[in-house]
């Protein structure tokens, strides 16, 4: 055939058939020829031919005698496709076997962890609400042996109020995938426990994973403390935002959402804080740089841009938390719009010190800062001249290279005189 010719088997013509097969197939060729020569029914036998391109070529042969001239016709069926299929089947079986043992090992580890875990864990069917699995810690917390816990309807383990709260928790988790922790009282022992839930799917059915921890009587537990802190932060009057080290928001409280004009926290999560800061790509870059250099930033002045176009002047204090389970950045954002409005007149006046001028960086354009810097230097020079001449304005004007009228104009401009003196003669003559 053409396929065998591509293997180079056109050279077989003229050679003994037995010389074209592999060593282990020679006896099969001899048996085929012997049976055919005896004019008996030959069996189908697999014979392998060597190949220069890869594995041996398997052929299934049968032979028949032609009585008329005594020649033998040999019929062959190429088994390479079947051999490839068999190899794939073997590979699949071995892969399944490896997966099976890997799953067995995983299940063993899961069972071991489930049994020795100090935290009470329950698996509850979402349809029947019956407990399908419970670890020893759960049985101890519920006051019963683990075997007696399995099969019970989970909410029935608590008093009436607790059972109602548990049903509501499971309904919320089943609908949204999330739910707040709740507190419930165990019916048998009267112990108060904190319950959290999550949902997962197995074999086309939903199951609840419930974790139970005892509520300490002395105060908030480790489980309830983060919940209390979260409520306090969300109710804080100042904006509070937690981001990852790259600035993507993880937590944003209500005050920040009001500033950014967001309806829910989900609109902020995953977004960069830079999206709402005054000068995109500038303010946030400065904050991140200083956080990485110093670990904290205080009273950084900028603005917050709302989704609906509103703007608010804010001051940001930030801290970098580089160590812990999840490195993060924390930002407190205070709306200073009212304070700045009350100080607007003072801000429009000439700054009285270099520190006040520095505080304007970021609030005014560079052109305005340069003008105010010039005014500041001019006022400081006039004050120095008046101090050196003991308030002799004529001498001060001469020292500064100004006319007396020009000096009076600048004095009135900078508020250094209580009442303007048109010609200044009285003041100068008195001082003289």
Compact summary:
With 432 residues, the protein is an alpha+beta fold. Helix content is 41%, strand content 22%. Helix 13 (366-388) crosses helix 14 and helix 14 crosses helix 15 (404-413).
Description:
α13 (366-388) packs across α14 (393-400) and α14 packs across α15. This protein has helices at 2-6, 26-37, 80-116, 136-142, 146-149, 160-176, 224-234, 254-260, 283-294, 337-342, 344-348, 354-359, 366-388, 393-400, 404-413, 425-431; strands at residues 45-49, 57-65, 72-78, 120-125, 131-134, 182-185, 192-202, 205-214, 239-243, 249-252, 296-305, 311-321, 328-335. β4 and β5 form a beta hairpin. It has 432 residues and is α+β, with helices and mostly antiparallel strands.
What descriptors fit this protein?
432 residues; alpha+beta; five-stranded antiparallel β-sheet; 16 helices; disordered C terminus
Please specify the SSE layout and strand pairing.
Elements: H1 2-6, H2 26-37, E1 45-49, E2 57-65, E3 72-78, H3 80-116, E4 120-125, E5 131-134, H4 136-142, H5 146-149, H6 160-176, E6 182-185, E7 192-202, E8 205-214, H7 224-234, E9 239-243, E10 249-252, H8 254-260, H9 283-294, E11 296-305, E12 311-321, E13 328-335, H10 337-342, H11 344-348, H12 354-359, H13 366-388, H14 393-400, H15 404-413, H16 425-431
Antiparallel strand pairs: 1-2, 2-3, 4-5, 4-8, 6-7, 7-8, 9-10, 9-13, 11-12, 12-13
Helix pairs in contact: 13-14, 14-15
């Amino acid at each position: 055939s053409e396929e065998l010719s591509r293997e180079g088997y056109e050279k077989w013509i003229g050679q003994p058939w037995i010389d074209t097969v592999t060593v282990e197939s020679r006896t099969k060729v001899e048996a085929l020829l012997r049976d055919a020569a005896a004019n008996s029914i030959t069996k189908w036998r697999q014979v392998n031919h060597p190949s220069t391109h890869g594995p041996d070529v398997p052929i299934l042969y049968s032979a028949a005698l032609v009585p008329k001239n005594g020649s033998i016709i040999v019929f062959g069926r190429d088994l390479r496709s079947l051999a490839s299929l068999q190899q794939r089947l073997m590979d699949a079986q071995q892969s399944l076997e490896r997966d099976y043992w890997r799953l067995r090992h995983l299940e063993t580890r899961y069972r071991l962890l489930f049994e020795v875990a100090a935290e009470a864990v329950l698996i509850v069917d979402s349809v029947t609400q019956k407990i399908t699995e419970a670890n020893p810690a759960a049985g101890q917390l519920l006051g019963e042996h683990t075997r007696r816990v399995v099969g019970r309807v989970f909410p029935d383990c608590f008093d009436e109020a607790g059972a109602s709260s548990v049903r509501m928790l499971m309904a919320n988790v089943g609908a949204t995938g999330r739910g707040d922790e709740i507190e419930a009282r165990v019916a048998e022992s009267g112990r108060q426990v904190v319950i959290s839930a999550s949902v997962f799917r197995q074999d086309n059915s939903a199951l609840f994973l419930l974790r139970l921890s005892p509520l300490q009587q002395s105060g908030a537990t480790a489980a309830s403390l983060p919940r209390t802190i979260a409520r306090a932060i969300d109710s804080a009057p100042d904006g509070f935002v937690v981001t990852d080290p790259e600035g993507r928001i993880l937590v944003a409280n209500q005050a920040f959402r009001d500033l950014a004009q967001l309806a829910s926290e989900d609109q902020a999560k995953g977004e960069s804080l830079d999206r709402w800061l005054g000068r995109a790509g500038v303010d946030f870059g400065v904050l991140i740089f200083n956080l990485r250099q110093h670990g904290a930033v205080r009273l950084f002045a900028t603005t917050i841009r709302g989704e609906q176009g509103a703007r608010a002047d804010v001051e940001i204090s930030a801290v970098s938390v580089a160590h812990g389970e999840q490195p993060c950045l924390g930002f407190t954002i205070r709306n200073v719009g009212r304070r700045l409005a009350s100080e607007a007149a003072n801000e429009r006046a000439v700054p009285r010190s270099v520190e006040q001028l520095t505080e304007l960086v970021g609030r005014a354009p560079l052109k305005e800062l340069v003008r105010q810097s010039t005014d500041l230097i001019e006022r400081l020079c006039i004050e120095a001249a008046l101090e050196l001449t003991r308030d002799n304005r004529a001498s001060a004007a001469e020292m500064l290279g100004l006319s007396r009228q020009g000096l009076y104009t600048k004095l009135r401009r900078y508020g250094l005189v209580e009442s303007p003196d048109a010609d200044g003669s009285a003041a100068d003559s008195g001082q003289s």
